[in-house]
């Protein structure tokens, strides 16, 4: 059966992580920082479980923002991190080339700040004929209003809004897919809050 083009599958998407750094997390007020970290870790674990290309970029590491958050670096210990000076990764030759080299048309975006470092490249890739998926609960802005306005603007430009759990369930889609079942279930149990507690309970009761 041919899968609908509107659905994400492991072979058609890549993850773009932008500026998950402590200096920016200090200023992000639109989401509890621990929730943001939990959601981002779940998203990265999902990308690893389904073997998605992952492009990681940071900015101003020596000036203000600091390195990639340690918890993310622990998940991606040998992964290249592309540092840059500008806010828009699409205007950075190295990052843009890495994204295009992935060969994937559907790009999942996660990072900070929603108002600039997420919205600017998302608006650009949409114009390039690529599909931007903003993992909204793995992004944060300076304010609730700023975050929400950025999400609205991106959506108006054609970007798709999603969440880390929707990404995971969309990629798995069928719990009889044994190759990724254990990893997907472990992510839900470890990062999925009440849903994960329910899965643990069901396993213990059976």
From TrEMBL:
Alphabetic keyword roster: Hydrolase
Entries under SUPFAM superfamilies matching the protein: Isochorismatase-like hydrolases (SSF52499)
GO molecular function annotation: hydrolase activity
A Pfam family the protein falls into: Isochorismatase
Record domain Isochorismatase-like: where: 13-164
PANTHER family in alphabetical order: HYDROLASE, HYDROLASE YCAC-RELATED
Protein name: Hydrolase
